[in-house]
Amino acid sequence: MNYISTRGQVEPVKFQDAVLMGLADDGGLIVPESIPDIADKLDEWSKLDYPQLAFEIIRLFVSDMPDDDLKSLVDKTYGPAFDGGVAPVAEVGGLFVQELWHGPTLAFKDVALQFLGNLFEYILANRGGRLTILGATSGDTGSAAIYGVRGRAGIDIFVMHPAGRVSPIQERQMTTVADANVHNIAVEGTFDDCQNIMKALAGDLEFKRQYSLGAVNSVNWARVLAQIVYYFHGFFEMQKRTGAESIRVAVPTGNFGDVLAGWYAIQMGLPISQLVLATNENDILTRFFSTGEYSTAEVYETLSPSMDIQVASNFERYLYYKVGCDAEILRRLMDGFGETGSLRVDCGNGGVVDPVFVAALARQEEVLETIGKYHERYDYVLDPHTAVGVCVAEKLAGPADEPVMCLATAHPAKFPAAIDKATGKKGLATHPAIEAIMEMPTRCQTLPNDKQAIRQFIKQVMDARLAGGGQ
Ligand SMILES: *Cc1c(COP(=O)(O)O)cnc(C)c1O
């Protein structure tokens, strides 16, 4: 399998180079040259456990790694790091919830970032060299990325988060990690500012080469790939429990990474009839799938901070397919978007942008109501991101014979303020991992919202680390 850029100006590369490249060198996103069709494998795959399934799916996209190596990498990833299974499906009232938060940082991002950490280590061990990972986080990516690579030889990680705009727990999950290869930066700006700085530095090819910059943001193809797996696993679980031949999946969305993995799963032949895309008040994606117009607006702070995003970095991958894999049209659209903050695609007959997606937003009061309701009726606590998905799934209910599975993207203990507010009770949502970090010392550098300041800081830290041997 070869990988190409959505903007068409990068020579095809194999999987490992695609992973190291992160963002494509021409500013585009890396996509596989083709999407494998697996419809005839569904029966066989339905009997596999999570690591076996992950191996079978991932190997279809990886042609530059021996099967045995990939197998041990996958087994190592989806073992004890996940407490209580990788992606178990719970039934709550009539609702199915796929719990994706059993990893070390209690958010679904662990599923991909534990894999990516192991993958980076494998690639560097084989090729030699170092990697400087630069990430931007609206909350959960940062800690999941840090836990993916903490203490690993040859890797340094710099994570930018918007100062004061992630929850105190999210901040502590990042800044309490004491390993010398972990560097936290609080940027005086929004998440989109952090993401823009990351993209600008990744586009500074000289800097990128000098420090071997790599990306862990959801632009990294390996993340999307790892996330495809749980859609399959969830479908098989749902099939066993309900006998359904196809399902709908509700996905709370920010950067369009998680839901894009579901879209790939559908293209591969998994019988998911529809993706129910759920946003909070930051609804650029909801507006797009309702009107065909993709245009940025102001970023609102909500109870689901990991979805407080107005430019979804993975959207370009979807758009590429939407324009018939024509890199030239895509480039024109993205250039226009860069200038005006808006782009438009044609709706098909009946004004539907894409029949695979239905979309709606859930406002904060609806989110609180949803959390309260599920707690009261079923004694089950939804985190505020998951509750966005559940709320929208209820609004856009489909046919009765087609069950919906809601992706639960975080453990509620990460967002106690929202849970307290929704339920009127204190201390409902707890987790030992969260209690532990509340007492630990923290480490973080606050810097202005300025690309040059961040560049300078990375340079300074890395030059000192490299001079000292870099372990
Ligand atoms: C990151 C995150 C999301 C959004 O995921 P995307 O892949 O960016 O759409 C939703 N919920 C939680 C808890 C998250 O951490």
Walk me through this protein's architecture:
- This protein is α/β, with parallel strands linked by helices and 471 residues long.
- The chain folds into two domains: 89-106 and 225-433, Rossmann fold, CATH 3.40.50.1100; 129-217 and 441-471, 3-Layer(aba) Sandwich (Rossmann fold), CATH 3.40.50.
- 44% of the residues lie in helices and 15% in strands.
- The protein has helices at 15-21, 42-45, 50-59, 67-77, 109-127, 140-149, 168-175, 191-202, 205-210, 221-242, 257-268, 284-291, 315-322, 327-340, 364-378, 384-395, 416-423, 432-437, 451-467, and strands at residues 3-5, 30-32, 89-92, 95-99, 131-136, 155-162, 182-188, 213-215, 247-252, 272-279, 293-295, 342-344, 357-361, 404-408, 445-448.
- The strands form four sheets. A six-stranded mixed β-sheet has the order 3-4-14-9-10-13.
- The chain starts with a strand and ends with a helix.
- The site of pyridoxal-5'-phosphate has 17 residues, from helix 11.
Protein topology:
Blueprint: E1 3-5, H1 15-21, E2 30-32, H2 42-45, H3 50-59, H4 67-77, E3 89-92, E4 95-99, H5 109-127, E5 131-136, H6 140-149, E6 155-162, H7 168-175, E7 182-188, H8 191-202, H9 205-210, E8 213-215, H10 221-242, E9 247-252, H11 257-268, E10 272-279, H12 284-291, E11 293-295, H13 315-322, H14 327-340, E12 342-344, E13 357-361, H15 364-378, H16 384-395, E14 404-408, H17 416-423, H18 432-437, E15 445-448, H19 451-467
Parallel strand pairs: 4-14, 5-6, 5-8, 6-7, 7-15, 9-10, 9-14, 10-13
Antiparallel strand pairs: 1-2, 3-4, 11-12
Helix pairs in contact: 3-4, 3-10, 4-5, 5-6, 5-10, 6-7, 10-11, 15-16, 15-17
The structure holds pyridoxal-5'-phosphate.
Pyridoxal-5'-phosphate binds next to helix 11.
